[in-house]
Amino acid sequence: MAQNKKTLSVTQAAKLCGVGRTTVGYWIRSRKLRATRTGRNYTIPVEELIFFLRANRQEIPRELAGENTFGPCFRAVQKCWDYWKGQPHGDHCPDCTVLKKQLEVCFSARHSNLIGCPEDCRECLHYHETYLARIQFVHQINMPAVIYRDLAIWGANPMWAGLCGVDESSLIGMGMENVVHAESLENLIADSRNRSLGASDVPLSYQLFLKHPDEGKIEVRTWVFPLNEPPDTLLMIAEKEG
Q: Which residues of 71-98 are buried (b: 16+ CB within 10 A; e: fewer)?
């Protein structure tokens, strides 16, 4: 029943976990369990409840886990201004373009002068919990690798940063156009658009030119793989030609 729902009420969560409503309320008030408040009621994302139960070594109800009992588990995605609400860091949110424009991914505006967040993404708990936890596997890949969506980089390993001649810390939120050479950019944009439209003939492997501040144009062989989590993101692995 619950595995087909995206959110649960406090009553539904309590029933599934075999506890009282006051217990679930305590989990929420103590910020151990994320929930969205609408009026006097809370809604709890199913994935957040699963994450909470696993983190506390509690049994996952079959109705919640479905067939994903042993699969990866992440915290529910939460907007950055909701994440920082009621905390000193949140004082910067009202003047930030991320809140004003209701941007889905906060670090996509990181390289804009309009972003109000004073913290580096590498040090940001919101980035670590919400995004980095989902893409950290990229650091286990022994080739230059980057994860991106809508041509905005979500993260990359040090080998990718070295291949492109940029500092790894600057990659988060950087546009792919900053590292892909103009000769290849049009094809990359077209392929990304066609993938988002569900085209089945988009190649998984092709030649690409990257630009390096010292070496100039670099030819690489790339492999691109759509990811299920985070949704609509792409993993690109590269190998330098020659």
A: eebbbbbbbbbebbeeeebeebbeebeb
